[in-house]
Amino acid sequence: MKLSHNKRITIVGLGLVVVALLLLGYFASGRRTAAAFRSVPLRRGDLVAIISASGTVEPEITVDVGAQVQGQILSFGKDVDNKTVDYGSVVSAGMMLAKIDDTLYIAAVDIDKAAVEQARANLVNARANVLQMKAKLFEAEADWHRAETLGPSKALAPTLYDQYKANYLVAQANLAVAVAAVDQAKAALSQAIATLKKDEENLAYCIVKSPVKGVVVDRRVNLGQTVVSSTTTPSLFLIAKDLKRIQVWASVNEADIGNIHPGQPMTFTVDAFPDQVFQGVVNKIRLNATMSQNVVTYTVEVNTDNSDGKLLPYLTANAQFEVGRRQKALLVPSAALRWTPRPSQIAPEYRRAHTRASPSKREGGGADGAPPQSRGTIWVEQGNFVRPIKVDIGLTDGAWTEVKGKDLVEGLRVVILEGKEGKREAEAGPGAETNPLIPQVGRGFRGQGQAPSGSGR
User: Fold this and answer.
1) Cβ neighbours, 10 Å, residue 14
2) Mean pLDDT value across the chain
3) What percent of the chain has pLDDT over 90?
4) What is the enclosing helix (H) or strand (E) of 127?
5) Would you give the DSSP letter of residue 156?
6) How far from 196 is each of 114, 201, 260, 269, 338, CA to CA, in Å?
7) Displacement of CA 5 from its chain's centroid (Å)
8) The whole model's pTM is what?
9) Are 52 and 318 in contact (CB under 8 A)?
10) What are the tens digits of pLDDT across the range 45-61?
11) For 232-312, where are the E strands, in sequence order?
């Protein structure tokens, strides 16, 4: 029987709808199959966790040499090589660094010497006066004793009797005054000698000497310059006592300072020698923290050997403090510990248990190598789904994290993110193309015992 035109159009339309639904189901099924996950295998490798910090190279002991007198700089001294003292000059203890104009100080010393001689003469005069007063006392005492024997009588008038007595008492007082004048002359002589000594010291200070053996790091004055010593001592030279013993003063963030301790080994580099790694040991942590833009940092002193003299004061140092080291540990990218699948991506037999479980942090840890929680979860593929594996989190360098667990074996593929094209990452190996977003274990430092640059944060 013949169908009408409208029925024919209806049947054809229904057929097209069925075909479209079949094609949509086919592509949807194929896309779901292709919606795999990006994963990497568990690997064994060496891991070093470090704390990175910046600092400066500092001399272990520096001496700021100042001027204790004021005047014009007339000349500089000679160093151990008989060259004029300048930047980098090697000097010995007691060696002249500079000479200040001493004209006024020489005049002051000459005046003091004259004052001392005058004080000595005054003392001699005072002592002679004492002898004179003693003689007068003796005479007055004899007259008084004779008058006392005669007493007021016809042989001795009462007024004369009283005069002898008064002369005796006055002689006693004059002797006491003469003795006091001797003490005063002695004090004046001592004062004059002290003034002379002080001005002689000031004269000696016109020769600025090095208090220690070392190297002149900074010369802060020039010939002809006038230095003025007032309430603060003007600084003329900065001397490093021994540049063979050098320090690194590193600024460490408060979040990492708990993992720094005296005796801890560290390494550092300087831009002057970028291919050389220097070794050091933590000496102490200074307690006077500083705050800049709400960030608290502590200064860590690091001792290092500079016998070859390569390290110069005030170079910028890029320091790395070793927190921990692992060898042949099972390593997983830290991203795998942070990735969490959607409930629909979890295998049905694990879905309910995982949904009921309270979420926990799966951070891979910080720069200090100690994760905030010792337990975490990684996900491995199971068909078109993923299943969880509980792991113990160990050391981390920020990119890779050490994991432990009874179900972990080398080569087990761990999901780090959801793929878009359903392709797994290729096995990494020498010369193999890998995802640049996935860190490579041991690249550049495996077997060398050094931490990779920039890791640990």
Assistant:
1) 10
2) 81
3) 51
4) helix 103-150
5) S
6) 9, 9, 56, 56, 81
7) 94
8) 0.61
9) yes
10) 998 888 999 999 999 88
11) 235-240, 245-253, 265-270, 273-285, 290-292, 295-305
